[in-house]
Amino acid sequence: MKILIDGMGGDFAPEEIVKGAVRAAAETSETIVIIGPEEAINQQLRANRWKGDNIEVVDATEVITNDESPAMAVRKKKDSTIVKGMNMLRTGEADIFISGGSTGALLSGGLVTLGRIKGIKRPAIAAWFPRAGKEGVTLLLDCGASVEAKPEYIYQYGIMGSIFVRGITGNESPVVRLLNIGAEEGKGDELHKTAYAMLKESDLNFCGNIEARDVIFGETDVVVTDGFSGNIYLKSSEGMSLAIMGEFKKKLTEGVIAKAGAMLAYSKIKEIKQVFDYSDAGGAPILGLKGAVLKIHGNSKATEVYYAIHRAIDYVDNDITGMITDAFSKNEYFAGKGEE
Length: 340
Fold this sequence. Notes:
The protein is α/β, with parallel strands linked by helices. The chain has 12 helices and 11 strands. An 11-stranded mixed sheet has the order 3-2-1-4-11-10-5-6-9-7-8, with helices on both faces. Strand 2 (31-36), helix 2 and strand 3 (55-59) form a beta-alpha-beta unit. Helix 3 (70-76) crosses helix 5 (103-114). The longest helix is centred in the C-terminal third of the chain and has 26 residues, at 227-252. The protein is globular and about 60 Å long. The two termini are 33 Å apart. Mean pLDDT is 89; it is low at 335-340.
């Protein structure tokens, strides 16, 4: 297996990208390919005292930034890390591509270079969320691949999300719910009402609406929504988690008594941190493309990169892209044919 990673994707590239890749490479026999300026990447490998043989470097002289028009940059910057990564994925030179670079460029590059799986109307970014007080995680999609939505898009997110959860966790009948302003049937605007009806009539294990405040409590395996709402929920949740943990740390270090109490409760504090810490989520797959693509945060550091590489191995081993392709080719769960 060859795992591609964008060596220049993110705020802390290439230092943190390489550091995370080195950590992961020491634990797997799979080949990790870092795309970026060859000398800069090799310099970081030397700085991390890498002596193994399962990290390769592919030279790329250009980087697509968040300030550029994604579609224009993908067309013009042929030697960029994102374009090179997508081309290697398309030609079969690699099995999966991880990037913390421009989300728009990843989507544009994926659509132009790889294309959508036949039958998929829109790809979706899927993100894992922890469950407070329960084991396991919840998958939310779409988290921003398409800010405008139609009911059939949301319906297809339910299909892709169910397949992904089944493939990764082994759960044969994941519970699917629709993110909405109320739990009762009939809530929401026409988009959500129509999406609800489509999900209800499908063969998915659809169990109705779910309100945003209830997602964290793990009442469902898959949550589907439009990309605009999903992205706001994702960013709000991450911001709240950072704020809670920041205040927690601040209060526990104010004075000798607080510090002593924190030391006594260290193991429990660590458990709480693990619930709210998204650094080990392993990135967000872009489902629906003809290739495996994993998006990590632009501010990802070595830990996030490390977990993303391990998640990528699971993604490829379970052939998630193949499972989605197969389901849509057989019209499983599928309302409506063809692409727009």
